[in-house]
Amino acid sequence: MSKKRGSRNRRTPAGADWPRCSCGCQAVLRPAGEVCGGAKPGTMAYVCPRYPECDSYVLARSDTQKPMGTLAWPELRRLRRAAHVSFNRLYESGLMTKREAYRWLSGIVQAPMAYAHIGYLGEYYCRVVIEESEKLLARNTPKEPKSSQTEGRERYASTYRRGTKAG
Ligand SMILES: [Zn+2]
Q1: 20 φ, ψ to 5°?
Q2: What is the pTM of this model?
């Protein structure tokens, strides 16, 4: 246990990759219930130390305690929730598999797969994801189930699923 400390851990006790608030402060880990309602007991959140003056936080994963993205202020939290709803419908509707949806997201936000998560998005890309998801869904949701066109669309959707390797 006498390993030399790497320079990696020298900057701050929590490590250089410890989440920061957009105001520049290093986040503190607090019970999520202190900042948002509806969080499961035991859930933690990375919160700006200036909270509530600076109302920014992000939830931590319950298994690893790692942040689920970057700290978000109220408007960004609202946009991320909306983006999640639209994005989830891409695979919940059967239009894509979940894997395909994340690959699509990766292309839309021009980020590698590891960072293609709503929790990393800023306001601009949240709006892009909402817009593009809604466009795709509108194009692929049959409006009137009476015509034979509907059947064609469904056949197209299943072909699309089959034709794409989903891992
Ligand atoms: Zn802050």
Answers
A1: -120, 155
A2: 0.74
